[in-house]
Amino acid sequence: MTTTKMRPIRQTIPLDEARAIIDRHITPLTRVERVPLQQAHGRVLARAAIATNDVPPFTRAAMDGYAVRAQETAGASRTSPRTLRHIGKLFTGQVAEHPVGPGECLEIATGAPMPPGADAVVIVEETDSTDDRVSVFSPVAPQQNVGRQGSDIQAGQMVLGDGEWLTPSRVGALAALGLTEVDVVAQPRVAILSTGNEIVEPGQALAGGEIYDVNKFTVAGVVSEHGGVPVFVRTASDTIDDLSRAVDECLAHDIMVFSGGSSVGERDLILDVIGNRGTVLFHGISVKPGKPTAFGLIDGKPVFGLPGYPTSCLTNAYVLLAPALRKMAHLPLALARQLTLPLGQRVVSAPGRHQFYTVRIENGVAMPAFKASGDITSMSKADGYIEIALDTDVVEKGEMVVVTLL
Amino acid sequence: MTTTKMRPIRQTIPLDEARAIIDRHITPLTRVERVPLQQAHGRVLARAAIATNDVPPFTRAAMDGYAVRAQETAGASRTSPRTLRHIGKLFTGQVAEHPVGPGECLEIATGAPMPPGADAVVIVEETDSTDDRVSVFSPVAPQQNVGRQGSDIQAGQMVLGDGEWLTPSRVGALAALGLTEVDVVAQPRVAILSTGNEIVEPGQALAGGEIYDVNKFTVAGVVSEHGGVPVFVRTASDTIDDLSRAVDECLAHDIMVFSGGSSVGERDLILDVIGNRGTVLFHGISVKPGKPTAFGLIDGKPVFGLPGYPTSCLTNAYVLLAPALRKMAHLPLALARQLTLPLGQRVVSAPGRHQFYTVRIENGVAMPAFKASGDITSMSKADGYIEIALDTDVVEKGEMVVVTLL
Known about the structure:
Two copies of one chain form a homodimer. In chain A, helix 3 (215-225) runs parallel beside helix 6 and helix 4 packs across helix 5 (270-277). The first copy, chain A, has four domains: 15-30 and 187-328, MoaB/Mog-like domain (Molybdenum Cofactor Biosythetic Enzyme, Chain A), CATH 3.40.980.10; 32-55 and 151-185, Molybdopterin biosynthesis moea protein, domain 2, CATH 3.90.105; 60-147, Molybdopterin biosynthesis moea protein, domain 3 (Molybdopterin biosynthesis moeA protein, domain 3, Beta Complex), CATH 2.170.190; 338-405, MoeA, C-terminal, domain IV (Beta-clip, Beta Barrel), CATH 2.40.340. In chain A, strand 20 (294-298) and strand 21 form a beta hairpin. The first copy, chain A, is elongated. The longest helix of chain A has 19 residues, at 310-328. Chain A has helices at residues 15-24, 168-176, 215-225, 240-250, 270-277, 310-328, 377-380, and strands at 32-36, 49-50, 60-61, 65-68, 82-90, 104-108, 120-123, 127-130, 133-136, 146-147, 158-160, 181-185, 189-194, 199-200, 211-212, 229-232, 255-259, 278-283, 287-288, 294-298, 301-306, 338-342, 347-348, 354-362, 365-368, 384-388, 394-395, 400-405. By secondary structure, chain A is an alpha+beta fold. Chains A and B meet through strand 5, helix 2, strand 15, helix 3 and helix 6 of A and strand 5, helix 2, strand 15, helix 3 and helix 6 of B.
């Protein structure tokens, strides 16, 4: 009988210190890829977009009405309209064949190019027409109801800088330049691997002591939500050799996320593997759930060792992994969707640990929903979580708490 | 010379009325599709998920330590430890070969099945071991540090109801049941079509009077952000016949979004097409930008006629289309990402219209960024927008405003 080789976590670091260490070792990706414009939404622009031509490319009518010589409408009113000769119609996509001469007007659609001679548009609501005569009921100033060439974007102008996150309107701005493809920052590829002899792929039958892999799916969800591409690596068994082979496979990607094997057990070997192949930067953080979390580097690539328990794993995926991914992906910090609500029930927190406590929102009140770290339903039945600081032991019923929605 | 056939919008309805009309005519989709679990994230569950077995499937150690008979640890302390005989080790994925007898303990890893005989786990931090002896420094109660079979999910229990939005933890809960595929609500397929003879696909050369299609891309972005699948339909020219053929193509999908052709011009034919093929439910809303917006039904399918101007089109895509899509997709209402900030500059609003005003956030202040409805940079250079109610004419510099982030 050999003695135990279990290695308790004796030292933990505060959450903020863990965040700072991770941040120091995460570098924004420099890899660039070209995507068709219709796939650019949500991506990050890799190079500034410079306009090669004016938008709009010509001076155009900004309203439906009549293109006129503005000075000829001076003093027009309902009681004393100006009358102009209607010389034709111009639809969008057409170009005027004749200039608008003195005493003339051209019917024009919003977006059609202004005809030579005219310098303003009288809106249709301020006119009346019979045969070839148009009565104008109010004066317009030069350039009124006209969109000048280049007024939106001028040729040579930087339309979007590099690093801009491509919201719908920004993709629209690139379309306005006539672009069909765009260079964007690559999305971090995240190798996800659940470790442990007990972990079985869903769909297979469970033998004694076995459970289905949950963390692979929850981590993949967080990765997709925060700009990464999840890559599933085959489950590794609890041997240094097998885990080390798995690491070789993972090194083809930008970042590695292991779950399980980072606690105190003899076969929690992830830590040894990170140590053998690279550097462990921390192991153990003062949070609950999620204490047995490790972070390190192998060949310069970040490695997260998340706890095997589903709720612990997912909490730290949100709190530590997501910001790291956003930094790698050049994405703006996620603005958490938060609500401030009264707490529905007194909560006692673990002393000396920053605690994440899941809650359900019921009738405008945050009701504690936390079960156990090993319970996936602790999160799946929750609407969000509250945070209780390291130095707070109790939050009373009725106190206002900030709920971060899941 | 024929007289004008321009048809000014004489009547507009308030934004809330437009929203209510749309809501009355939007039905949540009932179409279901089966997807692999790794693609279920973000989708909506179509049928309740009932557990076919317990989770965890066996009673297990919740901590690393020693499986013991709890009563034998009564009174244990650092000064007066209880000593037990170490009979072996149990890792995860293994099943104990022998029960734990009186005076015995079994080293056990978190997640390993509890051996018969033992009813609690003493955590490793509260023990010391030499050879085959383990000293226990504190007592445990029965079931302490033990996760009971079915404590997370019991066989027969409804784990997730139909209509639940699949966040990462909910996908995890489905994985815990051993599922590999899941029935989800179909995503609304949105046929998107830009109308107008002046509209040219990016990548082609512009002739006189032509501009690049912008709205197709901005609307597609909004559609993807709100649970829909954008489907590009070829650009239609400004003839009733061509638009009607385009409608035939669109009817294969769940919802149609046209842009352009819904204003007052003679060739703004979308309205005629909706009227000929179905019913126009409204045309013209009291918002700025975005007044020339129409909504109707063709063969029971919703049709949006959005303005051709990029900012007007995109504003109404956010304000009217997005909620409609979320309802069709069974998605929860989007919790807008909002900030309350002082306004950096006085804004005068259009009387009698609910106004959306784009802003940039600069040094904690919301600075007006609105250019013109035809300008895509009015949105692409903005961080968000503020809303000015119908009955408000002026918002003074320094007043607090709610910024909805884009």
